Amino acid sequence: MTDFAGKQVMVMGGSRGIGAAIVRQFVAAGASVRFTFSGSPDAAAAVAAETGATAVQADSANRDAVIAAVADAGALDVLVINAGVAIMGDPLTLDPDAVDRLIDINVRAVYFAGVEAGRQMRDNGRILIIGSVNGDRVPWPGQTAYALSKSAVQGIARGLARDFGPRGITVNVVQPGPVDTDMNPAEGPFAKMMHAAMAIKRHATADEVASLVLYLASPAAAMITGTTQTIDGGVGI
Ligand code: NDP
To answer: What is the CA(143)–ligand 1 centre distance, in A?
Structure first.
């Protein structure tokens, strides 16, 4: 495991699921970690107590809160933008306000957090965005809003990779398929349908996704930038 001792890491959305696994792995690797949360203060407090990481309440739907949370973190070595929501269903009947909120959290917050990180980030820093295989493929109906948001972050990553590349900063998207979290439980009603489209017929663990994030944040990944790294067990290949 890479040693992240002395590195300043911020995880947007670290109270549960994939984000909490990322917080735990960076702390275990020696990093100083801050993470944001919004709706789950008890879960955030538990992760903070367990790991010693600093929890910061900041709603990713609120642009000013996102920018302030990243600015307050100071000179980061690694920013992981993980906070995200999923709403699925017939686009003809989905609540437009819920779609707008999804775009605020999954797209606008990613843009503003990434840009803000670039103001103070150290040379050779890392920005990782948690996207989804649905940024590339939509094997099931009812995913239009979610898919648009996860395609959009690919463009953010490619743009920021160009903008910050001269400083050695890399920007990449990690695209999971089904991962066993509150958002998509391995025992949930859609699990069998998802596994049918996969080469490896199970949900990933949050730790499997976190391990890829730590690799991309390591010095070994210095020449990987502007990419999407898919970790999905072969959804729809
Ligand atoms: P969970 O719902 O289990 O956890 C979501 C995390 O994001 C929580 O820590 C939550 O914090 C935080 N979050 C959500 N909304 C906000 C907000 N408005 N402001 C701040 N934080 C917020 O989801 P996962 O761990 O499964 O998902 C994490 C990321 O991975 C998302 O971007 C998701 O789209 C992506 N992904 C997940 C897949 C899966 O199968 N699970 C597959 C592909 C991609 P809090 O509760 O405190 O608000």
So the answer is: 16
Ligand 1 mutation pick, 82, 137, 138, 140, max ligand atoms within 8 A of CB: 82
Fold category of 8-229 in CATH: Rossmann fold (3.40.50)
Task: Give the pLDDT confidence of 3-53 residue by residue, as tens digits.
Answer: 999 999 999 999 999 999 999 999 999 999 999 999 999 999 999 999 999
Cα→Cα distances 130→64, 90, 196, Å: 21, 24, 24
Task: Provide the residue ranges of all domains of the chain, joining segments of one domain with +.
Answer: 8-229
Q: Which residue from 79, 133, 179, 212 has its CB within 8 A of the most atoms of ligand 1, so it is best to mutate?
A: 179
CA atoms within 13 A on the CB side of 154: 15
| pLDDT attached to residue 225 | 98
Ligand 1 atom 2: residue of nearest CA? 183
What is the 101 CA–ligand 1 centroid distance (Å)? 14
| Dist. CA 122 → ligand 1 center (Å) | 27
Residue 146 annotated among the catalytic residues of the structure: yes
The residue-averaged pLDDT of 61-83 equals: 98
Catalytic residue among 35, 111, 146, 164: 146
What is the Cα–Cα distance from 151 to 194, expressed in whole angstroms? 20
pLDDT of residue 1: 77
